[in-house]
Amino acid sequence: MKDKTVAKTKVFLKSFGCQMNVRDAEVIAGLMKKAGYSLTDDEAKADVVIFVTCSVRQHAEDKVWSEIGRIAKQNRAGTVPIIGLVGCMAQNYQQQVFERSPAVDFCVGPADIAQIPDIVTKIFAHRKSAGRGGLLDMKIWETDGSVRPEEIYHTGFYEEKDHAYVVISEGCSNFCTYCIVPFVRGPVRHRHAEDILLEVKEAVAGGITRFTLLGQNVSSYHSPEPMKGKPVDFVDLLMAVSNISGLKEVGFITSHPRDTTVRLFEAMASCDTVKKYLHLPVQSGSDRILAAMNRGYTRAGYVHLAKEYRRIVKGGLLSTDIIVGFPGEADDDFQATHDLVRDIGFDTGYIFKYSPRPNTKACMLADDVAQGEKVRRHKVILDLQKSISKSRKRSVA
Question: DSSP E strands: which ranges in the chain?
Fold first, then answer.
């Protein structure tokens, strides 16, 4: 494929789910631009459509399948764009992707996104010589322990002009019983602190002043190698980033209660450039359910953390995630969650109905909370959180 043709080829990217997928889409966009392709915000003009996907919840997956079907039905002068499925769904379903949706041209797991420009080029060459079809050998799967090449984070492409997401770690090794992330993104791999600092400095040089550090569990971060002869944990990294000249604000998501410490709160309070916001997923207020989820902390431990955060980080915002309808969640378990939400008074809460995820331990448990009851519990907690959020906003105003 000649360079002039590549430059005229328009690529459209759409991400689903968490901020990690937003950053992955940016990384892919940067790689495509570096390879000479053009980006477009207009899906109707795209020659290549890439979906960066999430498998954490069934609803997110259903939306992607629907989008693929819609794109595949479009007819543009007798052709449809190349369709790529990237990320967690690709790793989760692998060969089944092509069986369920033959319209998909390539399927790439999270660790192998660096290969996407070459894959797209090969597919165009194949189409030119043989037409559509015969592309099942193009699939690429992530393998355990795979590490993304560091250079993919240095293309300089970010969607926002004044804000950048910066990945500090990939994957997860917590194995919460309901969570598919360790199976689709692999075990946790931490980037080197010096590489992270270099990425932030490069972005600052490009005019970006606000940053969000990303990881499935940022609190567990440890640099694979020391920096200036000293080990670097998450608090060390956060302070090093916050001190970069030209940076105005740095935040982070997500923190796991098991690994979050008062030392982090003290660092947040002491540094003007660190955003006073903590996302600390509790998931349930019941010790029995927390143990079944393999969360590694108790209700009392979580409440203590929340109180310490509010005491130390004056005016700091606190948000959380809640899952209702986990297998075995009885009325008293749900009431414990309700009471915890009421008593802590989160500024924001993200409430989800449990849905079984393949390969997880919870998937082997009986999904014994009726769907109607999940809907009811979801509404009860959601309504409670909305009331609390409004009240806290009024008190701040």
Answer: 10-15, 38-39, 48-53, 82-87, 106-108, 163-167, 169-170, 189-190, 210-214, 249-253, 277-279, 317-324, 348-353
Name 378's bridge partners.
Answer: none
Output the domain CATH number for residue 304: 3.80.30.20
d(CA 286, CA 381): 14
Q: Which range of residues forms the domain containing residue 162? A: 152-396
Q: What is the pLDDT of residues 23-34, one digit of tens each?
A: 999 999 999 999
CB 297 within 8 A of CB 290: yes
Q: Report how far residue 101's alpha carbon sits from residue 90's, in angstroms, rounded to the nearest whole number.
A: 12
Interaxial angle between packed helices 19-34 and 116-130, expressed in degrees from 0 to 180 and rounded to the nearest 10: 60
Evaluate whether residue 315 is within a structural domain.
yes
- Supply the pTM of this predicted model: 0.92
Tell me, what CATH number does 108's domain have? 3.40.50.280
* End residue of a domain, out of 138, 173, 201: 138
